[in-house]
């Protein structure tokens, strides 16, 4: 089981601006994109994606819980996702998905929020 903090990262160059990286929204975009856009989505990929989307919907608070198979599927999709920009926050998202902490706790989320607020 993987416990992934669902962060919302503001743009450090825009004080209070609308430019944020919301992990929930990025996960949804990654999962909805086919592994092979030329071929489309087969039924197995659709079932696996729906399990992840259901977990995102069911995530209470700020932690996403995925079983190992669903996490592996998310990583597979993450590795083929074309990104539209170069952004440190996107790299942080990728790193957080690839290497989730052993235990995501509220203390972890609060410490991240304190850093973001400054």
What does this structure look like?
The chain has 118 residues and is mostly helical. It has one domain (2-11, 19-106). Helix content is 53%, strand content 12%. It is built from five helices and four strands. The chain has helices at 23-32, 43-58, 68-80, 88-98, 106-117, and strands spanning 2-5, 8-10, 20-22, 63-66. The chain has a two-stranded antiparallel sheet with strand order 1-4. Strands 2-3 form a two-stranded antiparallel ribbon. Helix 1 (23-32) runs antiparallel to helix 2. The chain is globular, with a radius of gyration of 15 Å.
Please describe the structure with a list of short key phrases separated by commas or semicolons.
two-stranded antiparallel sheet; mainly alpha; 118 residues; 53% helix
Write the layout of secondary structure elements.
Blueprint: E1 2-5, E2 8-10, E3 20-22, H1 23-32, H2 43-58, E4 63-66, H3 68-80, H4 88-98, H5 106-117
Antiparallel strand pairs: 1-4, 2-3
